[in-house]
Amino acid sequence: MAIWQQGMIVIPAVSEILPKPNKELHFEYEDAWRKLSIDHKKFVEEIDSFIPRAHWVKSNDYFSWKGDTENKEDNDVDLCIDPKSGIIISLGFRFDLRTESPYFLEKILGLCIKNGWKIETYGGFFFQPNLTIIPEVIKQSAWREFLSNPEAYVEKIKDEPWNKKE
Fold it and tell me: How far, in Å, CA of 121 to CA of 126, rounded?
């Protein structure tokens, strides 16, 4: 992920499944997605309508979209499906912090709102999808913490389990 991107994990709306923050893997909500058993086809079409597919991905169980990086629209969407059933098992996105246009965020957050999904940042901040909360999300992001004080940030994360070399 680029320093100018903010990563998000989409959390499916299943009330009895509580969030399980896991900085190492982004499949911690797979059980919740499987419980909902949502076919991916309509979501692929909807995402296709607002961001182009990453032309280099040639997979039947992983879909990726990539914005126009040369136009400072380095937005991404990643959707993983179960190859046998075709149901969604993971959905995440990254948005470009340099972009002035809210178009991508309006579309992806709109998709989340329409389906009752929640969002978790890669840093573990949970929120209801809403464009007005994005400035607060950015203030709490790891990239901002890193840019504000790189030495303190590196010291803070050095002992995290996901940051250990095997």
Answer: 7
The token pair at 119 is: 């969002």
Task: Name the burial class of residue 58, with classes exposed (0-12), middle (13-18) and buried (19+) by CB atoms within 10 angstroms of its CB.
Answer: exposed
pLDDT-derived band at 1 (thresholds 50, 70, 90) equals low
Element (H, E) at 5: strand 5-11
Cα radius of gyration (the chain): 16
The tokens of 145 are what?
Answer: 């913490």
How far apart CA 91 and CA 9 sit, in angstroms, is 6
pTM of the shown model: 0.80
Q: Which two tokens stand for residue 58?
A: 């040639």
**Distance (Å, rounded) from C-alpha 36 to C-alpha 40?**
12
Predicted confidence at residue 161, as pLDDT, reads 65
**Interacting residues of 164 by C-beta distance below 8 A, sequence separation 6+:** none
Sign of the dihedral defined by the CA atoms of residues 20, 24, 29, 30, in that order? negative
* Other Cβ atoms closer than 10 A to 138: 14
Q: Which DSSP string do the residues of 16-80 spell out, in sequence order?
A: TSPP---SS-S-TTHHHHHHHT-BSHHHHHHHHTTS-B-TT---SSEEEEE--GGGT---EEEEE
Burial (Cβ within 10 Å: 0-12, 13-18, ≥19) of residue 2: middle
